[in-house]
Write a structure and sequence with these properties.
Pfam families: DHDPS (PF00701)
Protein name: Dihydrodipicolinate synthase family protein
GO molecular function: 4-hydroxy-tetrahydrodipicolinate synthase activity
Number of helices: 12
InterPro entries: Aldolase_TIM (IPR013785), DapA-like (IPR002220)
Structural class: alpha/beta
Order of helices and strands: HEHEHEHEHEHEHEHEHHHH
Low-confidence stretches: none
Number of strands: 8
Strand content: 5-15%
Family: Belongs to the DapA family.
């Protein structure tokens, strides 16, 4: 029997939320606050969650913390959300994390880009194939940030692993995305704009049907408004949302995205929803910028 992954594919063609990981005063993961933030997303209409994504500070968490975050997400979401668990690091660690997610009941895994100074394109295929073959029952979504990777390599991976069903594409070049998607197979995969709302309109025009979001932690309705406009082909409305979120996303993207997570947590802190602390190599937002972030968050219909 061939698995079609219809539910998983539909979940990717949506707002793919990347929850933050809140920390308690002593610095540990705060389970109660994390659950409350998840409930807020679910109550706000979000139905696809990615625990252990970059907005969740994946690389700053310990292995035990990453397992905890996945467990809390599956428990809290129940059948209200499709879970796309982030996995990565070395191959054995990524495989173990994927199997753990499967045991918990997650439906998909997102494979973070290999963290290695020397990435061969054939090695990229081997890395992802090892994960995909370990969990054939799960949908697998490569997270692509490598501008040198060709669409033909993704097609090669999917030929070997039919559970590779979607792509989180995060190369900041809409033209390259359009070419990559067509070289790999535009209809073969669900294409997720991996650089969130700022890139969603241009990537949707080239074939994306979903986008990731960290902003959604702060204002689920804003993200949902954008995807509704994009689904209907109403680009003027989508760009109105783009204008609304522009400054917030510029603050996140400044200095090589140094404050990407920091700005989201600062907005949540201004709303009294979690502490602002992040872990190195991220940093707290300077006092001079906190009021601007709070004003932006307060101005959204939340």
């Amino acid at each position: 029997m061939t698995t079609t992954f219809e539910t998983q594919r539909a979940a990717l063609a949506d707002v793919v939320a990347i929850p933050v990981t809140p920390f308690a005063e002593e610095g540990s993961v705060d389970p109660g606050t994390y659950r409350a933030l998840l409930r807020r997303l679910l109550d706000g209409g979000i139905t696809t969650l990615t625990p252990n994504g970059n907005t969740g500070e994946f690389y700053a968490l310990t292995p035990d913390e990453r397992r905890l975050v996945t467990e809390l997400t599956v428990e809290e979401a129940g059948d209200r959300s499709v879970i796309l668990a982030g996995v990565g690091h070395d191959v054995p660690t990524a495989v173990a994390s994927a199997r753990h997610a499967r045991e918990l009941g997650a439906q998909m895994v997102m494979v973070h880009q290999p963290v290695h100074p020397y990435v061969a394109q054939s090695g990229w295929v081997d890395y992802h194939r090892a994960v995909a073959e370990a969990v054939p029952e799960l949908g697998v979504v490569p997270y692509i940030r490598n501008a040198q990777l060709t669409g033909a390599r993704l097609a090669e991976l999917a030929d070997a692993c039919p559970n590779v069903i979607g792509v989180k594409y995060a190369v900041p070049d809409a033209s390259k995305f359009a070419a990559f998607a067509r070289d790999a197979g535009l209809e073969r995969f669900v294409w997720v704009a991996g650089l969130a709302e700022p890139y969603a309109p241009s990537y949707f025009s080239a074939g994306a049907t979903g986008f990731t979001s960290g902003l959604v932690n702060v204002a689920p309705s804003v993200s949902l408004h954008m995807i509704e406009a994009l689904r209907s082909g109403d680009y003027p409305t989508a760009m109105k949302v783009w204008e609304q979120i522009r400054r917030f996303e510029e603050l996140r993207a400044a200095n090589g995205s140094a404050d990407n997570v920091t700005v989201v947590k600062e907005a949540l802190a201004s709303l009294g929803l979690c502490r602002r602390e992040v872990r190195p190599p991220s940093r707290l937002l300077p006092e001079s910028e906190r009021a601007e972030v709070a004003a932006i968050a307060a101005g959204w219909s939340i």
